Protein backbone atom coordinates (compact mmCIF):
# COMPACT_ATOMS: atom_id res chain seq x y z
CA UNK A 1 0.00 0.00 0.00
CA UNK A 2 1.53 3.27 -1.18
CA UNK A 3 2.83 5.51 1.57
CA UNK A 4 2.37 3.02 4.41
CA UNK A 5 4.42 -0.13 4.94
CA UNK A 6 2.83 -3.53 5.43
CA UNK A 7 4.87 -3.88 8.61
CA UNK A 8 3.35 -0.71 10.07
CA UNK A 9 -0.15 -1.95 9.28
CA UNK A 10 0.65 -5.32 10.85
CA UNK A 11 1.98 -3.67 14.02
CA UNK A 12 -1.03 -1.35 14.36
CA UNK A 13 -3.41 -4.24 13.75
CA UNK A 14 -1.73 -6.24 16.53
CA UNK A 15 -2.20 -3.31 18.91
CA UNK A 16 -5.86 -2.84 17.98
CA UNK A 17 -6.56 -6.56 18.36
CA UNK A 18 -5.76 -6.12 22.05
CA UNK A 19 -8.42 -3.50 22.79
CA UNK A 20 -11.34 -4.52 24.97
CA UNK A 21 -15.04 -3.88 24.71
CA UNK A 22 -16.55 -1.38 24.14
CA UNK A 23 -13.61 -0.07 22.07
CA UNK A 24 -13.75 -3.16 19.88
CA UNK A 25 -17.44 -2.64 19.17
CA UNK A 26 -17.13 1.03 18.22
CA UNK A 27 -14.06 0.22 16.12
CA UNK A 28 -16.27 -2.09 14.05
CA UNK A 29 -18.50 0.88 13.26
CA UNK A 30 -15.40 2.72 12.08
CA UNK A 31 -13.90 0.07 9.82
CA UNK A 32 -17.15 -1.54 8.58
CA UNK A 33 -15.33 -4.79 7.86
CA UNK A 34 -12.36 -3.11 6.18
CA UNK A 35 -9.91 -3.05 9.06
CA UNK A 36 -6.68 -2.92 7.04
CA UNK A 37 -7.87 0.01 4.92
CA UNK A 38 -8.93 1.87 8.07
CA UNK A 39 -5.58 1.28 9.77
CA UNK A 40 -3.88 2.60 6.64
CA UNK A 41 -5.92 5.82 6.82
CA UNK A 42 -4.87 6.54 10.37
CA UNK A 43 -1.25 5.69 9.61
CA UNK A 44 -1.26 8.09 6.67
CA UNK A 45 -2.70 10.79 8.90
CA UNK A 46 0.27 10.34 11.23
CA UNK A 47 2.98 10.00 8.57
CA UNK A 48 3.30 6.24 9.02
CA UNK A 49 4.11 6.35 12.74
CA UNK A 50 2.55 3.32 14.45
CA UNK A 51 2.75 4.91 17.90
CA UNK A 52 1.08 8.15 16.85
CA UNK A 53 -1.53 6.40 14.70
CA UNK A 54 -2.38 4.07 17.60
CA UNK A 55 -2.91 7.04 19.92
CA UNK A 56 -4.98 8.85 17.31
CA UNK A 57 -7.19 5.83 16.78
CA UNK A 58 -7.68 5.21 20.50
CA UNK A 59 -8.54 8.90 21.01
CA UNK A 60 -11.06 8.61 18.17
CA UNK A 61 -12.71 5.56 19.74
CA UNK A 62 -12.81 7.28 23.13
CA UNK A 63 -14.44 10.33 21.54
CA UNK A 64 -17.03 8.11 19.90
CA UNK A 65 -17.90 6.40 23.18
CA UNK A 66 -18.03 9.59 25.23
CA UNK A 67 -20.28 11.33 22.72
CA UNK A 68 -22.55 8.45 21.70
CA UNK A 69 -21.47 8.57 18.05
CA UNK A 70 -22.45 4.95 17.45
CA UNK A 71 -26.07 5.93 18.15
CA UNK A 72 -26.09 9.35 16.49
CA UNK A 73 -27.97 8.10 13.42
CA UNK A 74 -30.89 7.22 15.69
CA UNK A 75 -31.17 10.84 16.86
CA UNK A 76 -32.76 12.87 14.03
CA UNK A 77 -33.03 16.62 14.48
CA UNK A 78 -36.74 17.33 14.88
CA UNK A 79 -39.26 18.70 14.19
CA UNK A 80 -38.82 18.46 10.45
CA UNK A 81 -39.37 22.20 9.91
CA UNK A 82 -36.54 22.97 12.28
CA UNK A 83 -34.28 20.51 10.49
CA UNK A 84 -35.23 22.16 7.18
CA UNK A 85 -33.89 25.39 8.62
CA UNK A 86 -30.62 23.66 9.48
CA UNK A 87 -30.36 22.30 5.94
CA UNK A 88 -31.15 25.69 4.39
CA UNK A 89 -28.34 27.34 6.34
CA UNK A 90 -25.72 24.53 6.35
CA UNK A 91 -25.45 23.77 2.67
CA UNK A 92 -24.16 20.28 2.04
CA UNK A 93 -25.41 17.40 -0.03
CA UNK A 94 -24.56 14.51 -2.34
CA UNK A 95 -25.14 15.18 -6.02
CA UNK A 96 -24.10 11.79 -7.38
CA UNK A 97 -21.04 9.60 -7.92
CA UNK A 98 -17.86 9.77 -9.94
CA UNK A 99 -17.28 7.21 -12.67
CA UNK A 100 -15.09 5.33 -10.18
CA UNK A 101 -18.05 5.12 -7.80
CA UNK A 102 -16.98 7.73 -5.23
CA UNK A 103 -19.76 9.85 -3.67
CA UNK A 104 -19.69 13.49 -4.76
CA UNK A 105 -20.26 15.79 -1.78
CA UNK A 106 -21.27 19.36 -2.60
CA UNK A 107 -20.66 22.08 -0.01
CA UNK A 108 -21.98 25.63 -0.29
CA UNK A 109 -19.24 27.41 1.61
CA UNK A 110 -20.09 30.90 0.41
CA UNK A 111 -23.85 30.78 0.91
CA UNK A 112 -24.02 28.88 4.22
CA UNK A 113 -25.19 31.24 6.97
CA UNK A 114 -25.44 28.97 10.05
CA UNK A 115 -28.07 31.28 11.56
CA UNK A 116 -31.06 28.97 12.04
CA UNK A 117 -29.80 26.95 15.02
CA UNK A 118 -27.14 26.75 17.69
CA UNK A 119 -23.66 25.47 16.91
CA UNK A 120 -24.55 22.17 18.59
CA UNK A 121 -27.15 21.30 15.93
CA UNK A 122 -24.78 22.07 13.07
CA UNK A 123 -22.06 19.90 14.57
CA UNK A 124 -24.57 17.11 15.18
CA UNK A 125 -25.82 17.36 11.60
CA UNK A 126 -22.27 17.26 10.21
CA UNK A 127 -21.37 14.16 12.21
CA UNK A 128 -24.59 12.43 11.15
CA UNK A 129 -23.74 13.01 7.49
CA UNK A 130 -20.23 11.65 8.10
CA UNK A 131 -21.61 8.54 9.76
CA UNK A 132 -24.24 8.02 7.07
CA UNK A 133 -21.51 8.30 4.46
CA UNK A 134 -19.30 5.75 6.20
CA UNK A 135 -21.98 3.29 7.28
CA UNK A 136 -24.45 3.49 4.38
CA UNK A 137 -23.17 5.29 1.27
CA UNK A 138 -19.65 3.88 1.09
CA UNK A 139 -20.65 0.25 1.82
CA UNK A 140 -23.38 0.55 -0.85
CA UNK A 141 -20.84 1.99 -3.31
CA UNK A 142 -18.43 -0.84 -2.49
CA UNK A 143 -21.13 -3.41 -3.19
CA UNK A 144 -22.18 -1.71 -6.42
CA UNK A 145 -18.67 -1.35 -7.86
CA UNK A 146 -17.43 -4.71 -6.62
CA UNK A 147 -14.35 -3.16 -5.00
CA UNK A 148 -13.63 -1.22 -1.85
CA UNK A 149 -14.81 2.39 -1.91
CA UNK A 150 -13.77 4.22 1.24
CA UNK A 151 -13.46 7.83 0.18
CA UNK A 152 -15.38 10.64 -1.50
CA UNK A 153 -14.69 13.79 -3.46
CA UNK A 154 -15.85 17.21 -2.31
CA UNK A 155 -16.81 20.21 -4.42
CA UNK A 156 -16.74 23.49 -2.52
CA UNK A 157 -18.83 26.31 -3.95
CA UNK A 158 -17.34 29.68 -2.96
CA UNK A 159 -19.91 31.87 -4.67
CA UNK A 160 -21.41 34.41 -2.31
CA UNK A 161 -18.37 34.29 -0.02
CA UNK A 162 -18.29 37.48 2.05
CA UNK A 163 -16.07 38.93 4.71
CA UNK A 164 -18.79 38.13 7.26
CA UNK A 165 -17.63 34.49 6.97
CA UNK A 166 -15.18 35.54 9.67
CA UNK A 167 -18.02 35.17 12.18
CA UNK A 168 -18.25 31.41 11.48
CA UNK A 169 -14.60 30.52 12.02
CA UNK A 170 -15.27 28.94 15.42
CA UNK A 171 -17.92 26.58 14.03
CA UNK A 172 -15.98 25.73 10.88
CA UNK A 173 -12.85 25.06 12.93
CA UNK A 174 -14.78 22.71 15.22
CA UNK A 175 -16.17 20.80 12.25
CA UNK A 176 -12.84 20.56 10.42
CA UNK A 177 -11.09 19.46 13.63
CA UNK A 178 -13.65 16.68 14.11
CA UNK A 179 -12.92 15.52 10.57
CA UNK A 180 -9.14 15.74 10.99
CA UNK A 181 -9.07 13.76 14.23
CA UNK A 182 -11.85 11.23 13.72
CA UNK A 183 -12.45 10.86 9.97
CA UNK A 184 -8.94 11.16 8.47
CA UNK A 185 -8.16 10.54 4.80
CA UNK A 186 -11.80 10.24 3.72
CA UNK A 187 -11.54 12.70 0.82
CA UNK A 188 -9.48 12.18 -2.33
CA UNK A 189 -9.82 15.69 -3.79
CA UNK A 190 -11.26 19.07 -2.80
CA UNK A 191 -12.48 20.92 -5.90
CA UNK A 192 -13.01 24.64 -5.31
CA UNK A 193 -15.32 26.42 -7.76
CA UNK A 194 -16.97 29.80 -8.32
CA UNK A 195 -14.23 31.68 -6.51
CA UNK A 196 -14.74 35.41 -5.86
CA UNK A 197 -11.90 37.89 -5.46
CA UNK A 198 -11.91 37.69 -1.66
CA UNK A 199 -11.11 33.99 -1.84
CA UNK A 200 -8.12 34.54 -4.09
CA UNK A 201 -6.70 37.11 -1.69
CA UNK A 202 -7.08 34.85 1.35
CA UNK A 203 -5.91 31.69 -0.39
CA UNK A 204 -2.43 33.15 -0.90
CA UNK A 205 -2.10 33.45 2.87
CA UNK A 206 -3.90 30.24 3.83
CA UNK A 207 -2.23 27.86 1.39
CA UNK A 208 1.24 27.83 3.06
CA UNK A 209 -0.34 26.93 6.40
CA UNK A 210 -2.01 23.76 5.14
CA UNK A 211 -0.39 20.38 5.53
CA UNK A 212 1.25 19.23 2.33
CA UNK A 213 -1.14 16.23 2.11
CA UNK A 214 -4.12 18.59 2.14
CA UNK A 215 -2.59 21.08 -0.30
CA UNK A 216 -2.02 18.31 -2.80
CA UNK A 217 -5.71 17.42 -2.64
CA UNK A 218 -6.96 20.94 -3.35
CA UNK A 219 -7.74 21.97 -6.93
CA UNK A 220 -9.07 25.46 -7.67
CA UNK A 221 -11.06 25.23 -10.91
CA UNK A 222 -11.97 27.97 -13.32
CA UNK A 223 -15.54 29.24 -13.11
CA UNK A 224 -18.05 26.57 -12.14
CA UNK A 225 -15.52 23.83 -12.92
CA UNK A 226 -18.00 22.09 -15.18
CA UNK A 227 -15.61 21.07 -17.96
CA UNK A 228 -12.96 19.71 -15.61
CA UNK A 229 -15.46 17.85 -13.43
CA UNK A 230 -17.08 16.21 -16.45
CA UNK A 231 -13.79 14.36 -16.93
CA UNK A 232 -14.47 12.34 -13.76
CA UNK A 233 -18.27 12.27 -13.53
CA UNK A 234 -21.36 12.38 -15.73
CA UNK A 235 -23.42 15.56 -16.09
CA UNK A 236 -26.17 14.08 -13.91
CA UNK A 237 -23.75 13.88 -10.98
CA UNK A 238 -22.66 17.52 -11.18
CA UNK A 239 -23.93 19.71 -8.33
CA UNK A 240 -26.46 22.26 -9.54
CA UNK A 241 -23.95 25.09 -9.05
CA UNK A 242 -21.54 23.46 -11.52
CA UNK A 243 -23.96 22.90 -14.39
CA UNK A 244 -23.79 26.38 -15.88
CA UNK A 245 -21.17 29.04 -16.35
CA UNK A 246 -21.69 32.68 -15.42
CA UNK A 247 -23.14 34.64 -12.54
CA UNK A 248 -26.20 32.40 -12.17
CA UNK A 249 -24.18 29.21 -11.99
CA UNK A 250 -24.42 28.77 -8.25
CA UNK A 251 -27.85 30.14 -7.42
CA UNK A 252 -30.31 27.77 -5.81
CA UNK A 253 -32.45 26.09 -8.45
CA UNK A 254 -36.22 26.17 -8.53
CA UNK A 255 -36.54 22.40 -8.78
CA UNK A 256 -35.66 21.32 -5.25
CA UNK A 257 -35.16 17.71 -6.32
CA UNK A 258 -32.16 18.92 -8.36
CA UNK A 259 -30.87 21.27 -5.64
CA UNK A 260 -28.55 18.92 -3.73
CA UNK A 261 -28.65 21.25 -0.70
CA UNK A 262 -32.44 21.03 -0.33
CA UNK A 263 -34.14 18.76 2.16
CA UNK A 264 -36.35 17.69 -0.75
CA UNK A 265 -33.34 16.28 -2.63
CA UNK A 266 -33.35 12.45 -2.73
CA UNK A 267 -30.12 12.23 -0.67
CA UNK A 268 -31.53 14.26 2.21
CA UNK A 269 -34.87 12.48 2.05
CA UNK A 270 -33.12 9.11 2.29
CA UNK A 271 -30.82 10.33 5.07
CA UNK A 272 -33.64 11.73 7.19
CA UNK A 273 -35.92 8.74 6.65
CA UNK A 274 -33.05 6.42 7.58
CA UNK A 275 -32.45 8.29 10.85
CA UNK A 276 -36.15 8.40 11.64
CA UNK A 277 -36.38 4.66 11.08
CA UNK A 278 -33.35 4.09 13.29
CA UNK A 279 -34.86 6.15 16.06
CA UNK A 280 -38.00 4.02 16.07
CA UNK A 281 -39.98 6.93 17.49
CA UNK A 282 -41.42 10.23 16.29
CA UNK A 283 -41.09 12.09 19.59
CA UNK A 284 -38.69 15.06 19.62
CA UNK A 285 -35.09 14.15 20.29
CA UNK A 286 -32.84 16.65 21.98
CA UNK A 287 -29.49 17.46 20.40
CA UNK A 288 -26.37 15.92 21.85
CA UNK A 289 -25.97 18.45 24.64
CA UNK A 290 -22.81 16.80 25.91
CA UNK A 291 -21.11 16.49 22.54
CA UNK A 292 -17.51 17.35 23.24
CA UNK A 293 -16.22 20.16 21.07
CA UNK A 294 -12.70 19.40 19.86
CA UNK A 295 -9.78 21.65 20.68
CA UNK A 296 -7.89 22.85 17.64
CA UNK A 297 -4.19 22.09 17.57
CA UNK A 298 -1.56 24.81 17.50
CA UNK A 299 -1.26 24.83 13.73
CA UNK A 300 -5.02 25.11 13.24
CA UNK A 301 -5.22 27.91 15.80
CA UNK A 302 -2.53 29.74 13.84
CA UNK A 303 -4.50 29.01 10.67
CA UNK A 304 -7.62 30.68 12.08
CA UNK A 305 -5.75 33.68 13.45
CA UNK A 306 -4.17 34.25 10.06
CA UNK A 307 -7.53 34.06 8.27
CA UNK A 308 -9.03 36.48 10.76
CA UNK A 309 -6.14 38.91 10.36
CA UNK A 310 -6.28 38.73 6.58
CA UNK A 311 -10.04 39.21 6.41
CA UNK A 312 -9.83 42.23 8.69
CA UNK A 313 -7.05 43.65 6.56
CA UNK A 314 -9.11 43.24 3.40
CA UNK A 315 -12.19 44.59 5.09
CA UNK A 316 -10.35 47.78 6.02
CA UNK A 317 -9.29 48.43 2.44
CA UNK A 318 -12.12 50.16 0.61
CA UNK A 319 -10.56 49.65 -2.77
CA UNK A 320 -10.45 45.86 -2.45
CA UNK A 321 -14.02 45.81 -1.23
CA UNK A 322 -15.09 47.94 -4.19
CA UNK A 323 -13.34 45.61 -6.64
CA UNK A 324 -14.97 42.60 -4.98
CA UNK A 325 -18.43 44.17 -5.35
CA UNK A 326 -17.80 44.89 -9.02
CA UNK A 327 -16.65 41.30 -9.55
CA UNK A 328 -19.84 39.90 -8.01
CA UNK A 329 -22.11 42.17 -10.05
CA UNK A 330 -20.48 41.22 -13.38
From TrEMBL:
PROSITE patterns: CRAL_TRIO (PS50191). Pfam families: CRAL_TRIO, CRAL_TRIO_N. InterPro entries: CRAL-TRIO_dom, CRAL-TRIO_dom_sf, CRAL/TRIO_N_dom, CRAL/TRIO_N_dom_sf. SMART domains: SEC14 (SM00516). It comes from the Eukaryota. PANTHER family: CRAL-TRIO DOMAIN-CONTAINING PROTEIN, CRAL-TRIO LIPID BINDING DOMAIN, CRAL_TRIO DOMAIN, CRAL_TRIO DOMAIN SUPERFAMILY. This is CRAL-TRIO domain-containing protein. It comes from Ambrosia artemisiifolia (Common ragweed).
